[in-house]
Every structure is written in structure tokens, then in C-alpha cells.
Design brief:
heterodimer, A: mainly beta, four-stranded antiparallel β-sheet, 0% helix, B: mainly beta, six-stranded mixed β-sheet, 12 strands
């Protein structure tokens, strides 16, 4: 238990569906992240929020829409996804943004399958 | 751009033995940080060990230690007295200038 909780753990959705992934951290951190983990590929950073402000968007398609209402919660809204978007989506948090002194704590991930 | 390479997609080791996982990286910077993360079947990413590039001494955390060769840009992880619970994916990660990058991972299986 790292203090970062993701729901749902598993999600299957059609290409025309709208769904959301939720992440909550209980560590008092100020930065939160979404990563995508595909098979046999390095972890891909998607979004970074620092003090509720989006500070990084790594060329992620608009069918992925993040939302950070406060420092403890992070959402990833999903709309008209493609089968190649099927992956494990990992939420993470750290005390501040990506920084050398800031260990990143990961959630258990939400396994997404797009059919 | 920094790249992180883990050349061993899969490895196995007998319980109680020692195994070393390799990681190389590419950077032109002098100050940076290196990490090893463990992802067991439960999928939770857990920090195993970290190393600051300005420190010459290799980091150690119980059975886990690193061999940091700055000139060679190499950052290997040694697991001593391997335990069944060490079975997991291991990711090497590099941080510099607000950018964190991960390697593709090495799947380690500890055999009884």
C-alpha cells in the first residue's frame, strides 16, 4: 500500500463509450501524474499536475482528458478510444513535480481494454 | 533526449543466489538521478533504490545494491540472497531537468 489508490482496477469499454479513471493519493503530495504502460514498451508519461496545474502534456491525443480538481484527486476521462489505447494506466504522486528529491509513488494501475 | 536501455528482457535466478540486472543510459548532463523500480504481479510500482549521480558511493538498501559507473553510463542492480517475493518486473529510471524516463523493464523470476 503506497497511499495512491486507483479505481477501477479493470475496465473494458467500447470505442464509442465515455469512461473515467480515478486516482486518489493520501500522502499530502502536490504533484500527480498519469503514465501509460503498454506491453514491452517503456513507461510513457502522459500528464503532470503540480499544485493542481497541468505542467506537462506529452503529446497525448485529445481523446484522453485529465482533470485535477485538487491536489489529492486526479481523473483521466476517456472518450472514443482506439484498441491500441488498451494498456495499464498508472497514476503516481510525489511531493512536488518531477524532482530529484521527490520519490514517485505509484498506484496499482487501472487495466484498460478497448474493444 | 535521455534514453534508458535495459538489455535483458527476462532473467531468472535460483532462490538464495545473486542476480544482476543491467541498465545503461544516455545523457550529456552531469547531475542527474537514477532509480530502480519493482513492479510485482500485483502491478504496484515500488521504489527499490535510488542513486544521485554526484555521489560516488554506490547506494545500498538491504539486499539491493547498485553498481553505478558514471563514465560508462551504467547503473546495474544487484539482488543478493534472492527471495521468491523478488519475482517482478524491474524498471530502471533516469531523472534530469524535470524529465523522468523509464527503461522497458526486465522480468525477473526467482525459482525455488
Amino acid at each position: 500500500e503506497t497511499g495512491v489508490t486507483q479505481t477501477p482496477r479493470h475496465l473494458v469499454m467500447g470505442m464509442t463509450n465515455k469512461k473515467s479513471l480515478k486516482c486518489e493519493q493520501h500522502l499530502g503530495h502536490n504533484a500527480m501524474y498519469w503514465y501509460k504502460q503498454s506491453a514491452k514498451k517503456p513507461l510513457e508519461l502522459m500528464f503532470v499536475y503540480n499544485f493542481k496545474e497541468q505542467t506537462e502534456n506529452n503529446s497525448v491525443p485529445s481523446r484522453f482528458s485529465p482533470e485535477c480538481p485538487n491536489s489529492s484527486h486526479l481523473f483521466l476521462h476517456l472518450h472514443t478510444l482506439q484498441p491500441e489505447d488498451s494498456a495499464l494506466y498508472l497514476c503516481a504522486s510525489s511531493q512536488e513535480g518531477h524532482g530529484p528529491g521527490n520519490t514517485i509513488y505509484f498506484g496499482e494501475g487501472s487495466w484498460l481494454t478497448v474493444v | 533526449a535521455q534514453t534508458v536501455t535495459q538489455s535483458q528482457p527476462e532473467m531468472s535466478v535460483q532462490e538464495a543466489e545473486t542476480v544482476t540486472l543491467s541498465c545503461t543510459y544516455d545523457t550529456s548532463e552531469n547531475n542527474y538521478y537514477l532509480f530502480w523500480y519493482k513492479q510485482p504481479p500485483s502491478r504496484q510500482m515500488i521504489l527499490v533504490i535510488r542513486q544521485e549521480a554526484y555521489k560516488q558511493q554506490n547506494a545500498t538498501e538491504n539486499r539491493f545494491s547498485v553498481n553505478f559507473q558514471k563514465a560508462a553510463k551504467s547503473f546495474s542492480l544487484k539482488i543478493s540472497d534472492s527471495q521468491l517475493g523478488d519475482t517482478a518486473m524491474y524498471f530502471c529510471a533516469f531523472y534530469d531537468n524535470n524529465d523522468m524516463r523509464f527503461g522497458a523493464g526486465t522480468r525477473l523470476t526467482v525459482k525455488p
